[in-house]
Structure formats: structure tokens, C-alpha cells
């Protein structure tokens, strides 16, 4: 199937590439299907692209590459929604806010994206503590490699 994208134009995708966000993403609750796309020349960032709306796309990254001691517990409603049975079933990404200068860009550690590899379901989980910031600086780590 072909989908319109914000950064890659129209692309062909396979249905198994789609991730379902059963409850959408906060602020985009009606967007349920997304795809992860690479960013050419950068192996740190990816694009989380809506499969139905080209303008809905988020730059995401693995938060552990930015903050090694990042840690949180996945709440029970998320475990049930995604069908998580063990830690190895999931991977975590976080949404970035890119600025003109990359070293002033930030990552949202307060609302990680949890992806269940086997069910192909995902959810943005809002953490209920102030340990992590909505705007944690990414520093120079994310420079294009």
C-alpha cells in the first residue's frame, strides 16, 4: 500500500510494518496507525509517521542513547493494552523537539513510547513522577554520523 509522508514523499509499505496505537497518541487520539522510518545519514533519529496523515510525523530516538540511566516501570494498563509478557517484548523510543541548533534540541523523557514487538501495538505512556523532564537536552550526541 502507498502512504503519504511528511519527509519521504509517497512510499510503499507492507501492512506488517504498521504499528497500532489503540488509543492514539495524546493530542492525536484519532491517529491509530504509524510506521517507523529511517532518516538518511543519521542512525540516531527515526520518523514516527502517521500512515493516514502526512503532516502527522514525529522525530523519535532511543532515550537510552541520550540518558544511560533512564528507567521507569511500565504501568499495568499499558502492560495489558500492549500484551507485554516480558521485558524483551518491548523497545522504547521518545519524541524529540528539534531546534535550529541540534545541541539545543530536547527529548521528552516524561512520555516514552512503548512498542510491543510481537503484537505490533504501541502506546505513549505518561509517567507520573517528576524524575524526568519533558525537555531533556540531547546535547551533541545526536549529530549526524
Distinctive features:
two-stranded antiparallel ribbon; mainly beta; 145 residues; BH3618-like; nine-stranded antiparallel sheet
Question: Overview of this structure, please?
Answer:
With 145 residues, the chain is mainly beta. It has a single domain, classed as BH3618-like. Helix content is 5%, strand content 34%. It contains one helix and eleven strands; from the N terminus they run ββββββαβββββ. The chain has one helix at residues 76-82; strands at 2-4, 10-12, 19-20, 33-39, 42-50, 57-61, 90-97, 106-107, 113-116, 121-124, 136-137. The strands form two sheets. Strands 3, 4, 5, 6, 7, 8, 9, 10 and 11 form a nine-stranded antiparallel beta sheet that branches. It has a two-stranded antiparallel ribbon with strand order 1-2. A hairpin with a 6-residue loop joins strand 5 and strand 6. The longest helix has 7 residues, at 76-82. It is globular and about 40 Å long. 25% of the residues are buried.
Summarize the structure.
It is built from one helix and eleven strands; from the N terminus they run ββββββαβββββ. With 145 residues, it is mainly beta.
